[in-house]
Specification:
Blueprint (H helix, E strand, L loop, with lengths): L15 H36 L2 E15 L8 E12 L2 E5 L15 E5 L2 H10 L5 E6 L7 E2 L12 H18 L4
Antiparallel strand pairs: 1-2, 1-5, 2-3, 2-4, 5-6
Helix pairs in contact: 1-3
Length: about 180
Amino acid sequence: MGQGAAGTSSMSRPTASARILKLCIGLFLMAAGLAGTALLFIPYRRAMETRAWTETPCEITESRMDEHRISDFAEPVSRVFLKYIYSYNGENHTGTRWRRGTYAFNEGEDLALRTPHREDAAKLVKKFPAGLKTSCWVNPATPSEAVLEHHTKAAIYTLWWPMLFAVGGAGIVWSSLRRRA
């Protein structure tokens, strides 16, 4: 741990290519951490938006489930179709969304949920049977947009995980750029 034969320190400065590699790794970790944070924050923000919508009485007019196979080799997928009617500012509307996310793809607007778990689909149909009078939340800016339930806010509680990568990456970037005495 002392000095070598020529009187130089045994710990040498990192080469320029090593510092560049360290900088690139740090920038990658920062970008991945910030992207992960943004991807978790978006569903939280959307879940909070529906909580500000207007609660409105509604009635479920259709509630059914079917199973669908994309191909002979694919597992069956359970699909739930919900329809409900509500009145907002004197106008009648028909809603089909269970939550804010849409599962329509190319299967039409009426699809409320698509899941490989038959039990989850059956629970949703049982929770919202045809004829049920309940509440929905209507977007005041677009009254044709409504949901029966809010999404969970749980995504906000996991933001710390990708932020660890962003902070760690920032530390690596800082250490690659600083000058040693």
